[in-house]
Specification:
Blueprint: E1 14-17, H1 23-34, E2 38-42, H2 56-67, E3 71-75, H3 82-93, E4 98-101, H4 116-143, E5 147-152, H5 155-159, H6 165-185, E6 190-198, H7 210-213, H8 222-228, E7 239-243, E8 246-250, H9 270-275, H10 277-280, H11 292-308, E9 314-320, H12 322-331, H13 342-345, H14 361-369, H15 371-377, E10 388-397, E11 405-418, E12 422-432, E13 438-449, E14 477-482, H16 487-491, H17 504-509, H18 519-534, E15 542-549, E16 558-566, E17 569-576, E18 582-591
Parallel strand pairs: 1-2, 1-4, 2-3, 4-5, 5-6, 6-7
Antiparallel strand pairs: 7-8, 9-11, 10-13, 10-15, 11-12, 12-13, 14-16, 15-18, 16-17, 17-18
Helix pairs in contact: 1-8, 3-4, 4-6
The structure holds 1,4-dihydronicotinamide adenine dinucleotide.
1,4-dihydronicotinamide adenine dinucleotide binds next to helix 1, helix 4 and strand 6.
Length: 598
């Protein structure tokens, strides 16, 4: 309700304010009355420690209201007798629309010195009293489909305060009470919010520094409480902190958290909890949950995650468009000198398409960008650019490939093997498009030099894609490509910036005389050869590739790809022409259908 001059009004509303004989409650009562509400001024009139009783406190405020032309009655009951307080409202005015649970006392003692009586009295007045008054008012409010309820909390509850164990507990209890009242009343427009005030009153006298005490007038908070109780305010379950003419909402937040075991079949161990503790307590991605259902919803997500790969699954996004596709194609030797390569190099070509091996990148970048995957798998080993070698790669295309988009890639360690001189870590990464369509799967084996002899198994588990030896006959076809001395420098632009491929010092550290070409670049050349030989350069016919990187290539060397056709499986090996050394072995490409071009 608002008057013609735009002032928010409470005409026809009945407001019960507990503890309204002094401090904050008095200001609330005065403001409600001034704006047209009929007010029940409740106050027991005892000491600030909850001793004694006097009618004077409530009477003085009622007088004040009446003198100013407002309507009010006094109620001298303790809030612990909440039903009687509400009865006063019903008897005097026939209804109750607003309840501000404000009455309070203090019995501050350090935890050890807090007596049971100190505990009980404080909790009774604040927590039980608010419960009793709310419980009594609730049926009236629900019936009339209108109600506004305020609980009064405190920073002492939210943050804790020395010497206020009883009070802090009660004040946080009120937050919990408000949470549930807000839910139970919502359907009937009975809304419940929390005020967290700081004001000068007899309660804070001697506690707040003088300079603050004089600025923290209760009058500055009353409009916040009054607004929360107005029919135009639709907040429900909010906690509002207010002081000194300032107010702000307070939220509880929850971090992203961490799964506490590798898979559903594993137990949760103290050691695992310790290992992931920094993730458990990381609040960088904290979020507010609006309802308890959201909390259990996350638990379902956790179970799903465990089924998919557990705590060690990591995720990354990968954005690409024609620029990335063309840069990649150039990086693996596609050239406008070959008219059939134009489709990989010119975005306006009617057949513009990615070279399928481009899609090794999201998996590789996820594995590289995160030390999480490989180093987590080998917690006791040093893992860096100088001691990792790309061992094997498998790529499978699962759906039609787009020419631009954002992929979400999720990866996990799939297997770890102990090869003595080093460890092999097998990672699986799945990449999805924006609509959740699985586009590609990658599996990479990384050899970590010097990380072996940890007592692990030697053989791979099922699901590690095996290599296929080439037939023993002479190759059915061979294609030769010259690489340029700048091949690695160009290929780097597709994302793999490992300095081993450009920095002579880093190459020396890793045991090579000069920087070497990326294994995946050689894979790209090889895939191009198979597509050219058996698929008329149609990338849509490509299904999968598996390779083992068996030796280094120096940029500038020439590559010969020897191929054997076995139905739709094209076995191949890649050889450095200048040295005759095999650099890709046991490899094959699966095509959807193959042309019998020999
Ligand atoms: P206050 O002491 O000035 O007023 C509290 C009133 O409640 C008193 O008039 C008292 O007689 C009455 N009361 C006490 N026990 C009662 C009972 N059993 N039944 C009915 N009335 C009773 O205190 P103030 O500062 O105005 O506090 C109001 C509320 O705000 C309290 O709940 C307090 O805990 C809370 N609060 C106050 C802060 C402040 O900075 N003043 C800080 C945080 C919370």
């Amino acid at each position: 309700m608002s008057s013609s001059n735009g002032k928010l009004r409470y005409d026809g509303r009945v407001a019960v304010v507990t503890g309204a004989g002094a401090g904050l409650g008095r200001e609330y009562a005065l403001l409600f009355a001034e704006r047209g509400a009929k007010v029940v001024v409740n106050d027991l009139g005892g000491s600030h420690a909850g001793e004694g009783a006097s009618q004077r406190a409530a009477d003085v405020v009622v007088d004040e209201i009446r003198k100013a032309g407002g309507e009010a009655v006094a109620d001298y009951n303790s809030v612990i007798d909440g039903a009687k307080v509400i009865e006063t409202a019903i008897n005097a005015f026939g209804r109750v629309d607003i309840l501000v649970n404000n009455a309070g006392i203090l019995r501050d003692r350090s935890l050890v010195k807090t007596s049971e009586q100190d505990w009980n009295l404080v909790n009774d007045v604040h927590l039980k009293g608010s419960f009793k008054c709310t419980q009594a008012a609730f049926p009236y409010m629900k019936k009339q489909n209108y109600g506004r309820i305020i609980m009064t909390s405190s920073n002492s509850g939210i943050y804790g305060n020395f010497g206020q164990a009883n009070y802090s507990a009660a004040k946080m209890g009120l937050v919990g009470l408000a949470n549930t009242v807000a839910i139970e009343g919502a359907r009937n427009n009975v809304l419940c919010n929390v005020i967290v005030p700081t004001a000068a009153s007899r309660m804070t006298e001697g506690i707040l520094p003088d300079i603050l005490f004089n600025e923290l007038k209760p009058k500055l908070i009353a409009p916040v409480v009054a607004y929360l109780c107005h029919e135009s305010c639709e907040d429900n379950g909010s906690y509002i902190e207010s002081a000194a003419g300032w107010a702000s909402k307070i939220h509880t937040v929850r971090g992203k958290g961490s799964v506490l075991r590798p898979s559903l079949d594993d137990p949760v161990t103290i050691e695992y909890v310790k290992d992931v503790w920094s993730k458990v307590t990381d609040m960088s991605q904290a979020k507010h949950l609006n309802a308890i259902g959201e909390a259990s919803g996350t638990l379902l997500e956790v179970l799903e995650k465990l089924k998919e790969g557990g705590a060690d699954a990591v995720e990354d996004t990968f954005e690409f468009n024609s620029k990335e596709l063309i840069t990649y194609a150039l990086g693996i030797g596609a050239t406008i000198k070959n008219e059939k390569d134009i489709r990989f190099l010119y975005e306006n070509d009617s057949d513009f398409a990615p070279i399928p091996s481009f899609f090794v990148l999201p998996g590789l970048l996820l594995t590289m960008s995160t030390d999480k995957l490989i180093s987590k798998a080998l917690p006791n080993a040093q893992v860096d650019f100088t001691n990792i070698l790309h061992g094997e790669q498998y790529l499978e295309i699962c759906d039609d490939l787009p020419t631009s988009g954002t992929l979400v890639t999720s990866g996990k360690v799939f297997d770890v093997m102990d090869k003595g001189s080093g460890a092999v870590v097998v990672t699986n990464t799945d990449s999805f498009d924006e609509s959740g369509r699985l586009l590609v799967r990658n599996q990479s084996s990384t050899f970590v030099v010097g990380a072996g002899k940890f007592g692990g198994k030697k053989e791979p588990i099922a699901g590690v894609v095996p290599l296929q030896p080439a037939p023993s006959r002479q190759p059915d076809a061979s294609i030769q490509y010259a690489t340029s001395e700048d091949q690695a420098a160009l290929y780097r632009l597709s994302g793999d910036r490992n300095p081993l491929h450009i920095d002579p010092q880093m190459a020396l550290l890793a045991g090579f005389k000069t920087p070497i070409l990326h294994g995946l670049c050689t894979l790209g050349y090889s895939v191009r050869a198979v597509l050219a030989q058996y698929a008329d350069n149609d990338p849509a016919l490509f299904k999968a590739v598996k390779v083992r990187f068996s030796g280094p290539v120096i940029p500038g060397q020439s590559l010969r790809i020897d191929m054997w056709k076995q139905g739709t499986r094209i076995h191949f090996r890649t050889v450095v022409v200048e040295t005759g050394k095999e650099v890709i072995s046991g490899a094959y490409v699966d095509l959807k259908s193959a042309q019998a071009k020999l």
